[in-house]
């Protein structure tokens, strides 16, 4: 029996989360409902590891509350932050399709609630609903474009513009007060921590941002938006 929209929202607690997710929102209510029926919930404590690089890729995750930090560690033992994910963000998509080992670590930052879709369950759904496969391919193409944009930023934009873009993107996910270290920011924009610190201090003095311990608060969002669109090769 097919449920109407109101019944779906009542009976499937993950329907709303999937509906606002950039990964699934373009699907119709019926498709989202079928995916929501596969979801299970997981709660995590601050610092708890969700998975490590090399672990089996057996599930996709979505953040309902809190933050997940995606990191990698070099052979020398140095850790780098690759991404910081907040409510509405989906990660582990490739695991649903290829099942290959994880390419990075995922760790909870604060109290976290996730929803999870196991690969085996999702594969069974795709066999029944091949049109969902088409949407997944489109979304993976969007991820490739994102990677290309990151490469373009590194080659065409100044550090000032890259940093402004990254802060604006983080603000979209977490609000204008962002919990992030300057070391993490430096990895996200591909620059040294000292260089990032110098630019942040310039913005602090001009009133564009406020800085705290492992925190950046955006005060003048228009200023950062202007900085984000400037293209040059000058090092700031």
Automatic annotation (TrEMBL):
This is Crp/Fnr family transcriptional regulator. CDD domains: CAP_ED. Residues 157-222 form the HTH crp-type domain. It comes from the Bacteria. PANTHER family: CRP FAMILY TRANSCRIPTIONAL REGULATORY PROTEIN (PTHR24567), DNA-BINDING TRANSCRIPTIONAL DUAL REGULATOR CRP (PTHR24567:SF68). The keyword Cell wall biogenesis/degradation does not apply. Keywords: DNA-binding, Transcription, Transcription regulation. InterPro entries: cNMP-bd_CS, cNMP-bd_dom, cNMP-bd_dom_sf, Env_Response_Regulators, HTH_CRP, RmlC-like_jellyroll, WH-like_DNA-bd_sf, WH_DNA-bd_sf. Residues 23-143 form the Cyclic nucleotide-binding domain.
């Amino acid at each position: 029996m097919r449920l109407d929209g109101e019944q779906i929202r009542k009976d499937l607690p993950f329907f709303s989360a999937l509906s606002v997710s950039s990964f699934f929102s373009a699907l119709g209510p019926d498709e989202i409902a079928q995916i929501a029926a596969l979801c299970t919930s997981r709660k995590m404590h601050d610092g708890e590891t969700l998975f490590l690089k090399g672990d089996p890729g057996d599930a996709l995750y979505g953040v309902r509350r809190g933050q997940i930090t995606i990191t990698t560690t070099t052979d020398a033992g140095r850790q780098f932050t690759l991404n910081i994910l907040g409510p509405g963000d989906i990660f582990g998509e490739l695991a649903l399709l290829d099942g290959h080992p994880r390419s990075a670590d995922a760790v909870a930052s604060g109290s976290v609630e996730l929803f999870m879709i196991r690969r085996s369950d999702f594969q069974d759904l795709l066999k029944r609903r091949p049109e969902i496969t088409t949407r997944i391919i489109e979304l993976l193409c969007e991820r490739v474009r994102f990677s290309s944009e990151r490469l373009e930023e590194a080659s065409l934009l100044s550090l000032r513009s890259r940093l402004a873009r990254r802060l604006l993107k983080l603000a979209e996910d977490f609000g204008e007060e962002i919990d992030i270290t300057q070391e993490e920011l430096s990895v996200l924009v591909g620059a040294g921590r000292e260089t990032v610190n110098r630019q942040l201090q310039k913005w602090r003095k001009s009133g564009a941002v406020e800085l705290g311990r492992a925190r950046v608060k955006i005060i003048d969002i228009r200023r950062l938006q202007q900085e984000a669109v400037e293209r040059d090769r000058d090092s700031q």
